[in-house]
Write a structure and sequence with these properties.
This protein has 98 residues and is mainly alpha-helical. It is built from three helices and two strands, in the order αααββ. The longest helix is centred in the middle third of the chain and has 26 residues. The radius of gyration is 17 Å and the shape is elongated.
């Protein structure tokens, strides 16, 4: 299980983020950035967990992935099931339903 904590609420995160942008004179985007931030962490965490399994169990590389490769897809899906962390928006964890 991947578990780490971010000690900010979505509002605190967005306030800090918009302040940083304003200080750099960059236009402020709508408040969806916290959700994008959490999504990127989910994908990065699952990839980090998947890479060793893809190499050892399948003798393959992530770079060789195709959408038709069900074995790699299953390893990645399983890795997402292990992602658990307190995101900026909510506590994230996933369930696999068949």
């Amino acid at each position: 299980m991947i578990d780490f904590l971010l000690q900010q609420t979505p509002s605190e995160y967005y306030l800090q983020y918009t302040e940083l942008l304003r200080n750099r004179k960059i236009p402020v985007p709508p408040n969806i950035t916290a959700y994008a931030y959490d999504a990127v962490w989910v994908i990065a965490s699952a990839l980090n967990k998947s890479i060793p399994k893809i190499q050892s169990k399948l003798g393959s590389r992530v770079e060789d992935f195709t959408y038709g490769n069900k074995n790699v897809t299953q390893v990645f899906t399983d890795a997402i099931q292990d992602v658990r962390f307190q995101g900026v928006t909510v506590r994230l964890l996933f369930y696999y339903f068949v």
